[in-house]
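EI: anyone free to look at a 220-residue chain?
SC: sure, send it
EI:
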Amino acid sequence: MADDMSSLLSLEGELTCSICLSLFESPVTTPCGHNYCQGCLDGTWRDSEQTGLGFNCPQCRSHFVTKPELRKNTVLDAVLDKFKLKSKANIFSDVTTTTKTEPEAAPIKCDACMGGKACKTCLTCMASYCVEHMRPHQENPVFATHQLREPLADLQGRICPDHSKIMELFCIQHGRCICSFCLQQEHKDCTFRTPDEQRVLREVRNFPQLREKCRLTFWQ
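SC: here you go
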């Protein structure tokens, strides 16, 4: 069972929608072969249609003259069901034991040497660096304005396809991640969260045991 759960965890990136950066809900597949939550893609295309941009794949930007008829990806949905069941069992086990054990996430590699463990991600360079290759950012004034964060996984999946900037915000009204340029343009009047906050809220909503655990943690 441990090996089974480990295999599912290793596939989490494949089970994540690139629009909302959360696990798929009712996954559908575009004609170009990319998968999204049905609600996320419908919302994105509804906004694009209203602004006259038509229907494009958010990932590869393939253009469709008319809105494609989307069908549920039943195979992917079955894998998601299995993943969620295993996740619920793991959360329940954690709640009912005093010792918390969590699978260790794979270390994020340095983009410069491709071998060392990254200690920071630079949102300006759009790359992660180990301690050695992080030194220029810490010592050279040229890099003083660069935005540094704790190491981020799947950096390419966090880049806005329209502006090539990191999507640091989640637009609540449109139900998708946006970058700072998006916020300054078509999302000026929207409210937003960080993608991590949105992911936690969605996980708490999906798993009642986790919701109860959060209540006990913060209000006891």
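EI: The first strand starts at residue 27 and ends at 29.
SC: 👍
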